Structures are given as C-alpha cells and as structure tokens.
Amino acid sequence: MSKEQKVIESLLSETDIHINGKHKWDPQINDHKFYKQVIDEGSIGLGEAYMNGLWDCDALDEFFYKVLTAKIETKIKKNLKVLSYIFASRFINKQTKERSKQVAYVHYDIGNDLYKNMLDKRLIYSCAYWENAQNIDEAQEAKLNLICRKLQLEPGMRLLDIGCGWGGLAKYAAENFGVSVVGVTLSKEQVIIAKEVNEGLPVEIRLQDYRDVHEQFDRIVSVGMFEHVGHLNYHHFIKLAHENLTEDGIFLLHTIGSSESVSTTDPWINKYIFPNGMLPSIPQIAKAIDGYFVMEDWHNFGLYYDKTCMAWLNNFKNNWPQIQQHYSNEFYRMWTYYLSVSAASFRARNNHLWQIVLTKKNRKGMYLSVR
Asked: Pick from 174, 142, 106, 194: which is nearest to 301 by CA?
C-alpha cells in the first residue's frame, strides 16, 4: 500500500466511506494512480481522475455529501497552482467584460440540445421551487410565479431581466402579468432560443453585458447570474441596478450563496464548469447594497437546489443516448460529476439559494412578501 493510499484511507476513516466497499457511495478504484493524483492535486486531481476513469462510484452525490460534511477537502494539501489561483482571485478582477464572455462559451454555448435534454420544458437553469410541485416542470413554473409575485408585477410595467438565459422568465412574465421585458445575456446560443420563444411578445432579447444597460425600469430581476459577477464587481452591479430602477421599483436578486466569504471557487469547477465564477456570502451582499437599497425580504430555499440538481442529473442520464453522438464519454463523466457535487454542496448546506428583494429608500408604502 502506497503512502498516498494510506493518507486517503485515513481521511475517509472519519466518514462512512470505504475504498472498494459495498455501499453505493463507496469509491471503486480502477487505477492506483488515483491516490497520488488526489494527494498531489486535490480537487482538480479528484475530478480529473473521475473524468479519466481512474475511479467510479454508484452514488457520487452521497459520496460528496459525506466528504463535505466531514470537511475532508480542507485536509488535502493544495498544490502551488491552486495557491496561485487563490492569490490572483483576491487582487485581480477575473470578471471584466472580456473575461465574463468566457463562461458563456465554455458553459452556456456548448449546445442547446444538452440543456433541452436536461432541464425542464421552459429551459430554466436555476433552482426550482418544489413547494407542492410533483416534477421539475411544475417546480420551475412555481419558481417563476413566485418571482413575479414578489416583484408585484402589473400590466404595463417594464422589467429588466439580467442574465435572461433562454428567455423562460421573460416569456412567463409577459404572458401572465402583461409586462414588457428586456432580457440581456452574453450567450449567443441562449439568444437564439430566447428570441424564438418570445416571438410576438413585448420582449426584447439582447446579446449585451449588464454593464452596458443604462435605462429606467419599473422592476429588475437577476436569476442565477450574480454568481458570475465576482466579489470585486458586487458594488458596481448593485450600483447599476440602483441607477436603472425607478424610485418606486423593486429589484429581486436570486443567487446561490456561500456559508462563508471567499474570493475563489472550487478549482475543478473553475477549470471545467464555471470559469471565474464565485459564490457571494451574506456579508459581501450586505456590503454591496449598503447605501443603495433597503432589504425587504431574504428567502433561503437552498435544499430545493439539491432536488433540482438531482432532477437534472436524472434527465441527463436518461436522455444521454439522444445526444451522446455530440459529446465524449469524458464529457458524460464530467457532467455527471458536476451535477452530483453540486447537489451534495446544497445537501451539506455549504451552499444556499437566496431570493433577496430590494427597494429604494424613498419607495412609498410597506412591502409585504409572499411564499
């Protein structure tokens, strides 16, 4: 037994995980190179070893849930590459206009067929609201309805959707609440579908950076986009929202959040899934809105994201035969790994899902939130 294997087995001894064990969450090692790669490269090594078939696991989500709750990842040394990334993230703006385009073509422009076979019928790529919902379609529609009710939309209002995705929220708001919508995204693939689904509706879809929007709106919403803004840009993002919102307006921010303030993301996630992404914390958001907005409501339903990720994973696996000719087996393993570790991060309550309602100080009347 190598020294690396001894270290990993020692770390796992603090959990109910056993190398080559019989439980569905036990990792099955296919190549002994696995041990050295994980010890030397940490998170990146673990993920790449899975992508390359050095290990398997029948229940990756359960494996990661146990790892995260035991905080094993903090006990595996970080290599110099990871340390340099952490250093750079604290002082270098990794979410400039040019860098922000990177996540669009690395993650969102990898093929609409992938997302059509993974998401719900509306192509909503954010946490669903599972209260009284029986499936992902119902849960996503419930989320859209919840957002629109929290925004207190009324016919004739003008809504800005920052990070509009494939246009599902814009379509729902226009059809059901009689508002006109401007949706902005950096993804060319999303723009194609968003324009198609909103044809004939008072919806304008733009391939545009949020920093280039300078207009007045009655309501502003941002769903699942703030995670790409970066801590060095939180203040500017909030400032722009404040400038673009009418005095009586409402701004709803829907974002994944972290239990602690950080300036980096998981190295494997950064390399393969969301380049330059970053999860905000409560103090970071509070600091950004200070002096700009009154916080009217803060709703946490992060455990619903676990269920959402698992629904996406099941769809992805079940529909893989329909799209596999366009992707490699390595991609299949990478995507399975990504959705599994994401589900586990919410199950372990490392990550949360927040809907935050913000208004300007001079807004008249009391805001009453809904669930």
From this structure: 142
Rounded to whole angstroms, how far apart are CA atoms 219 and 244? 9
What are the tokens at 63? 């494996």
Q: Tell me 77's DSSP state.
A: P
pLDDT (tens digit, 0 to 9) for every residue of the chain, 371 residues total?
A: 899 999 999 889 889 999 999 999 999 999 999 999 999 998 999 999 999 999 999 999 999 999 999 977 665 544 434 433 444 444 555 556 565 555 555 667 788 999 999 999 999 999 999 999 999 999 999 999 999 999 999 999 999 999 999 999 999 999 999 999 999 999 999 999 999 999 999 999 999 999 999 999 999 999 999 999 999 999 999 999 999 999 999 999 999 999 999 877 899 999 999 998 999 999 999 999 999 999 999 999 999 999 999 999 999 999 999 999 999 999 999 999 999 999 999 999 999 999 999 999 999 999 999 99
Domains parsed from the chain with CATH numbers: 3-77 (no CATH), 96-359 (3.40.50.150)
Residue linked to tokens 């722009």: 240
Interior angle at CA 225, CA 220 and CA 230, nearest 5: 115
Tell me the angle at which helices 282-289 and 234-244 cross, rounded to the nearest 10 degrees.
40
Cα three-residue angle 327-329-334, rounded to 5 degrees: 90
Give the CA diameter of the chain: 70
pTM for the structure as a whole: 0.91
DSSP at 323: H
Residue pair 219/251 in contact (Cβ under 8 Å)? The answer is: yes
Amino acid at 77: K
